[in-house]
């Protein structure tokens, strides 16, 4: 798997920041900054030869959008999917939450093309709308699938906050998740181990977009660098950063800008996304 350039991921974050700046300061569902984000990501993927489609839905009286991108080729009966939500809260630009996850899977998708990776399985990427309203876009997507289409998806990997300024290195626990999730958790953990980074399991329950996939029986996994929770002294001695301080003090606030991202955490998570995808889709 390629080492993902953090500079490339940061360039995408700068774009999300510019989009928010030009659209009232946010990228929230129902606001112009969200559709501008969708259109920008779509343009990058179209240029890289992906087959893209925008799925629209209504939530809270406003139109929402999911972006689905399929990499041509691979076994259509064996789909590996990566996703993250593209919407921010209305309070700010949502660069860590969840520009980081969105930008990281975008860069991984671009590197699939750039490196000429020919995976055995079929790759699909999703950028979800209205996650902040209650996982609305990802739920709409999963509900739109026939049972046959659901059975073709063998793994869903979710990335929601991967660059928190006072980062923890969490991998979603597979307990309570569909059979097959443990293998994904192990792959993600191995990716961090290869970088010399220790991880902790976190029980994410229904707190992000993997939940709808898990309910459909699809194996899930993901990584997370922390939100409003407080880093303990044990975690600070393991990971660095500041004990007794939130992993992300700007979570759901207007200060969640490009300066609210830890580049090392962003890079490490992007590299693990790539190594896990290459191993899972080979
Ligand atoms: N609910 C997500 C952020 C979030 C909070 N806890 C977790 C755990 C696992 C993934 C994401 C999250 C949001 O605000 O978008
Ligand atoms: Zn890297
Ligand atoms: Zn959020
Ligand atoms: Zn989020």
TrEMBL record:
The keyword Zinc applies. GO terms for molecular function: aminopeptidase activity. Keywords: Aminopeptidase, Hydrolase, Metal-binding, Protease, Signal, Zinc. Residues 66-275 form the Peptidase M28 domain. The keyword Signal applies. Belongs to the peptidase M28 family. M28A subfamily. This is Aminopeptidase. It comes from Lentzea cavernae.
């Amino acid at each position: 798997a390629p080492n993902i350039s953090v500079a490339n991921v940061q360039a995408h974050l700068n774009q999300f920041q510019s989009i928010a700046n030009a659209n009232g300061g946010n990228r929230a569902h129902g606001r112009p900054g969200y559709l501008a984000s969708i259109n920008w990501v779509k343009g990058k993927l179209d240029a890289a030869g992906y087959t893209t489609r925008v799925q629209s839905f209504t939530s809270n009286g406003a139109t929402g959008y999911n972006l689905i991108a399929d990499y041509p080729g691979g076994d259509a009966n064996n789909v590996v999917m990566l996703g993250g939500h593209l919407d921010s809260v209305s309070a700010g630009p949502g660069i860590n939450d969840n520009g980081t996850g969105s930008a990281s899977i975008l860069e991984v998708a671009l590197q699939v093309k750039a490196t000429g990776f020919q995976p055995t399985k079929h790759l699909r990427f999703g950028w979800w709308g209205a996650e902040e309203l209650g996982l609305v876009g990802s739920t709409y997507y999963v509900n739109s699938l026939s049972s046959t289409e659901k059975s073709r998806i063998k793994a869903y990997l979710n990335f929601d906050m991967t660059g928190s300024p006072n980062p923890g290195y969490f991998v979603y626990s597979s307990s309570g998740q569909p059979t097959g999730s443990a293998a994904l958790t192990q792959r993600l953990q191995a990716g961090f181990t290869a970088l010399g980074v220790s991880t902790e399991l976190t029980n994410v329950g229904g707190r992000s977009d993997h939940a709808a996939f898990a309910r459909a029986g699809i194996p899930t996994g993901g990584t997370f660098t922390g939100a409003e929770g407080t880093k303990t002294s044990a975690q600070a001695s393991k990971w660095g950063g500041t004990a007794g301080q939130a992993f992300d003090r700007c979570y759901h606030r207007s200060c969640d800008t490009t300066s609210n991202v830890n580049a090392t955490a962003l890079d490490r998570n992007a590299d693990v996304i790539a190594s896990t995808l290459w191993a899972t889709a080979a």
